[in-house]
Amino acid sequence: MSISYKEAGVDKHEGYKAVELMKKAVEKTQNANVLNGLGSFGAMYELGKYKNPVLVSGTDGVGTKLDVAFKLKKYNTVGIDAVAMCVNDVLCHGAQPIFFLDYLACGKLQAEVAADLVSGVAQGCFEAGAALIGGETAEMPGFYKPGDYDIAGFCVGVVEKDKIVNGSATTQGDILIALPSSGVHSNGFSLVRKVIKDYSVSYEKTTIGEALLTPTRIYVKPVMELLKKYDIKGMAHITGGGLPENLPRTISSGHQAVVFKEKIKVLEIFKYIQKEGNISEDEMYGTFNMGVGFVLVVDPKDKDNILKDLITMGEEPYEIGFVQKGEKELCLK
Length: 333
Hints:
Elements: H1 12-27, E1 53-61, H2 65-72, H3 78-91, E2 96-106, H4 111-128, E3 131-139, E4 149-160, E5 175-180, H5 189-195, E6 202-203, E7 206-207, H6 208-212, H7 220-227, E8 234-237, H8 242-246, E9 255-259, H9 268-277, H10 281-285, E10 292-298, H11 303-312, E11 318-325, E12 331-332
Parallel strand pairs: 2-3, 9-12
Antiparallel strand pairs: 1-4, 2-4, 5-10, 5-11, 6-7, 8-10, 9-11
């Protein structure tokens, strides 16, 4: 007696349907540098005109924020998170994200759900100016439960070698400029899920679940515009570990970042989480972004013009501290 792949739990035709549903969203991210379409064994991307290009890569996932999405049956935002987590990291070195590949795994593939997830990936790529050039959808019955999905991605960016930003130029007196986050972004959700059990609870003009699913902000376009005019000395994407873990990564040896808590515009969502879980302030700052999604380290002479340019671009930047001589860890006052 023979057995089919479908009887083993994998429906190839559902996979073909998912690809067809994804195509339209993927196509809007394509550009002239993409040399082949979906279906090839490998994706091809032409670099174009660079003098001395350096490729900068990053990979990440969405983490347990996915659990909130699945419980709310809202699948079209977490793909943006997957892209944002990667492209914002690549951006920290001054690189323009050029292409992205996604990986989607599940227990039982539902074409419409998979297409919703990938539509979020495509939207994130569009916001970052990166082409979604390929990916993989893996149906793994018996490994993932039906209804469970995992999503991750891989991004490549490019920067001219003499334009790389790595924090080595930061020095005493440099100014720290914050770009606000949109919320919790995609870190700390294991703690969030321990604190918040009912996602239907009313919160501001929506529910707490909907608020938690607010996608991670993508900072590529405003920051790349700044890099055309200014020598940004360092940049930090504030992810897991918050400011204490991430900001020192872009400060040069023998110096430290000084951040004033009273200057940080803490978002209400963090106040809500802290109150609900009776969480200490140190734990909050060591886990969440607290309202600061990205930090620029800039020369004092450029500060006012950079703030002005960011405001013109629709951003809401503000100063949170400075660089001084000292040990590399963050000085949070």
